[in-house]
């Protein structure tokens, strides 16, 4: 009976090496991911600080100096304002 308990209690899961690298490698990866996260947050904060406090309104007339056909408006015969008014409220045309 005691022999059967000893066989069942023995660690025989295939990882019997001493001095394995799983612990230090896991710590290295956690520190690396933490450092990358901190650097990403700092970068995004600096980019957000550079943005203007308010953006100009998107619906106003746009002055362009282009003379190509894309500056005249949509090709379906409507003006730019007509196509914008058909959008649901809260949506802006790109």
From TrEMBL:
<keyword id="KW-1133">Transmembrane helix</keyword>
<feature type="region of interest" description="Disordered">
    <location>
        <begin position="49"/>
        <end position="94"/>
    </location>
</feature>
<feature type="transmembrane region" description="Helical">
    <location>
        <begin position="20"/>
        <end position="41"/>
    </location>
</feature>
<keyword id="KW-0472">Membrane</keyword>
<feature type="compositionally biased region" description="Polar residues">
    <location>
        <begin position="69"/>
        <end position="94"/>
    </location>
</feature>
<keyword id="KW-0812">Transmembrane</keyword>
<protein>
    <submittedName>
        <fullName>Uncharacterized protein</fullName>
    </submittedName>
</protein>
């Amino acid at each position: 009976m005691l022999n059967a308990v000893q066989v069942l209690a023995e660690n025989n899961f295939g990882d019997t090496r001493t001095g394995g690298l799983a612990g230090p490698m896991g710590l290295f990866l956690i520190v690396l991911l933490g450092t990358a996260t901190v650097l990403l947050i700092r970068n995004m904060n600096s980019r957000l600080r550079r943005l203007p406090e308010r953006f100009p309104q998107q619906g106003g007339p746009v002055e362009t100096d282009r003379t190509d056909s894309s500056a005249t408006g949509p090709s379906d015969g409507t003006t730019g304002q007509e196509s914008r008014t058909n959008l649901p409220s809260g949506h802006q045309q790109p």
